[in-house]
Amino acid sequence: MADPVAWLAGLLGVPVWLARSVFAPLVYPGLLAFTVVALFIIWAERKITARVQMRVGPYYVSPRLGGALQLLADGVRIAFQEVIIPRQVERYSFILAPVLGFAVTAMALAVVPGGPGVYGFRSSVGLLVAYALLGLAPLLVVVMGWAANNKFTQIGAAREILVSVAGEVTLLASLLAAAMMYGTMDLVEIVEAQAAAGVPGIVANPVAALLFFIAALLIADRVPFDLVLGEQEIVQGPYTEYSGVLFALTMALDYLKLYILMMLFADVFLGGWMPFSDPLLGSAAVFAKTVALMLAAVFLRSVYARMRLDQVASMFWSKLFPLALIAFVLSAAVHPLYGGVLAG
Amino acid sequence: MEWGSRSVSRRRGPGVVRGHLQAIAAALRQLARPPMAMPLLEAEDARVPGYRGVIVFHYDRCIGCSLCAQICPSRAIKMYRVPGDKRIRPGYDVGRCIFCGLCADICPVDALETSIIHDRVYEDVPSMNMDPVEWAVWSKRILREEREPGRPRLRAVVDPDRGLRYERVEA
User: Fold this and answer.
1) Domains identified in chain B, total number
2) Structural domain boundaries enclosing A79
3) Residue of chain B nearest A51, judged by CA positions
4) What burial letters (b/e) apply to B86-115, b meaning 16+ CB within 10 Å?
5) Which domain holds residue B87?
6) Is A56 close to B39, i.e. CB distance below 8 A?
7) How far is B154 from chain A (nearest CA, A)?
8) For residues A41 and A53, what is the distance between their CA atoms, to the nearest angstrom?
9) A55 touches chain B (CB under 8 A)
10) Is B169 helix (H, G, I), strand (E, B) or coil?
11) Is B41 on the interface with A (CB under 8 A)?
12) Judged by CB atoms within 8 Å, which residues 147-186 of A form the interface with B?
């Protein structure tokens, strides 16, 4: 089976591009895969944090599975919870902002390839499209914070503005350094360049990879940069007033960002489906790399404490941004490694 | 010479990269260690000797002197007339009890004793107030549970290697 999506399209009698653009955002690497990953990652996060703190973590929902069904139980509870809309909120923005935020972010899954031939559409600027769609989410988060009309949400929204600007500049710098290194912005070509050269991007340009990882932690609101949520300070930041399904969406939004960014990391710096070229094995490789990266990201929660706002700002602008310039120089130096491959 | 500038040398921390690596390595080491929390639904905390739980009542030992009702600071124990019994007997309100154990101390015939159990669930408030016969029957159940616990009793022991360890305590 060379291409399972094409085979599926033939089976259903629809054009391949249509099957692709439905399969990728909805099944893999899209929402279905994300739901499974999110359930696993949140459980793993709680379990890892518990083990580092010498606790047991989720357990009694399913003792034989180590509490793995806890998240399903929580999901059922949240699904049946009443969505409370406080009197002082701006009603339509309050309801629509998390829905739109999640939808816009999920659209990035159409661009990020989850395996050889497994993508919604292929663009010569795929990297920028994914970045731009991710960059829209903070706007909706600010709308959430404003619409909820509550001091915690407004502080959270203000923090989101400051933090997302700092993080996205670093993220874009590392992505552009990678694009410069490979000589292309097409995500599929980037992976193919790494496969052809036999060197994953993290080896060629570790500085850009590190910057991407740190910026991804910030954009996905992970510890140590989770000051937008800041549970001990501002309840849940911009998400304070949400309950029920809307709260689940806001919570999923951060994990969705983490999922997309880590899949992007796997594609751009870890060589995507590198050891394989078969669609199924390749997809499995990308998926495994993504999950491993997400596990690393949630593990950091038990290592670090939250940074202050000024610490984050000074770290990103005065330490990481100069590093990005080094990453560009490094990219220029290692460019022949990949440039020759694509030209040939 | 400023104060302390010579004798006190400030310990320099590890560098940035080494510091992060050390922190991550420390968390990874912790990850490999077993949890030291007690599995609370599968075991229960062993009580120390002399633990003051609910008061159990031995009906056959009681002489009806009502000293317990007099000493009880929260009026959890009151004397009742029992049909067919010519002496008055103590009844017990767990809701009022402060588990001081004074009644068990003052009882001249040891008809009242402290148990090691105090975490019980009652269906409603009236069921916490027991007359002498109910109390005596209930006490038998509590005493049986004290002898044959449903869950193993564990005691926390400080272990230099693992932090806390739990060992089983026989009833």
Assistant:
1) 1
2) 4-343
3) B31
4) eebbbbbbbeebeebbbbbeebeeebbbbb
5) 55-147
6) yes
7) 17
8) 18
9) yes
10) strand
11) yes
12) none
**Residue B167, strand partner residues:** B155
Contact B27 A299 (CB under 8 A): yes
Residues sharing a CB contact under 8 Å with residue B5, sequence separation 6 or more, in sequence order: none
Which residues in chain A are contacts of B30 at CB distance < 8 A? 51-54, 302
Q: Closest Cα partner for A226 from A202, A267, A269, A257? A: A257
Q: Which residues of A touch B27 (CB under 8 A)?
A: 52, 299, 302-303
A295: tokens are: 């596990």
Count how many domains chain A has. Answer: 1
Asked whether residue B69 is domain-assigned, the answer is yes
Enter the DSSP assignment of A318.
Answer: I
pLDDT band at B154 (very low <50, low <70, confident <90, very high): confident
CB A152 within 8 A of CB A237: yes
For the record, the structure tokens of A153 come out as 């949400």
ipTM (interface predicted TM): 0.74
Assign residue B134 the CATH number of its domain: 3.30.70.3270
Nearest by CB to A51, from B24, B31, B163: name it.
B31
Q: Does residue B29 lie within any of the structural domains? A: no
Give the integer Cα–Cα distance in Å for A159 and A235. 14
Task: Tell me which residue in A53, A55, A303 faces B24 most closely, judged by beta carbons.
Answer: A303
Q: Report pLDDT digits (tens) over B34-78.
A: 888 877 778 888 888 788 889 999 999 999 898 999 999 999 999
3-state secondary structure of B154: strand
Residue B18 lies in a domain: no
Residue B46 lies in a domain: no
N-to-C CA span, chain B: 68
